[in-house]
Amino acid sequence: MAATKPFFNTKQDLYHGDEPAYYSLEKAAWIPLLEAHSPAIREELYSVLADPAKAQAAYQKFSARKTAGWKQMELKIYGISYPAKTALFPQTMSVLGQIPGISTIYFSLLEPGATVPPHVGDTDAFYRVHLGIEIPGHLPECGLQVAGNQRSWETDKCIVFNDVYHHTAWNLTNQRRIVLILDVLRPEFSDKALYTNSGVRATLFYSRLYSKTFFLQELLPRFIQRTIHPCLHAIFYVLHRIRFGKR
Question: d(Cα 211, Cα 119) in Å, to the nearest integer?
Fold first, then answer.
């Protein structure tokens, strides 16, 4: 039975829900479209990387959290697009505009020897998609692990998983690895885009708050603890509606 509401991982715990770690590609009818346009997406990315001014603009990131050797070009994050960046990728955005329910778009670059620290995601409402753009090797030297199961990327091919599970990635080759990452709403949540995206932003805020004040929060009565995330969710939902409308 399909869930009626997304699960939000407010305390960044290990996920024990019903979703699989990896999804069959048949789950998403738009995978062939994405894979067919992968060469054009790669060519456009290379043209941006070759222009220092464009590359600097594309890499600009507002988050203070950084991992050595891991860089992202964030075009859209949980429903909020960055027009100055998307303007650098017109062909890519044209292709992605044909895929319903995309909440997040970014290029992920792992330098030689770099590892993404193990972590868990914030919701089970998305298909997390990795499209292989530049893949320098395969397991065991370069790969992805989700819920203990390892996969190799392939150039111009997709891997689809649920990033709410504990996962990590690594590139122990002597060349960079690039994938295009998308978060696409699962069909059962296709009419809950704003609800889901604002819930994820509330989860990100709450989980960071909880990690610093958990010893105080655990002293609060349970009914108060249970209201914190819903209140934050409502605030982010209203703020998004005020700034962006219904989208």
Answer: 14
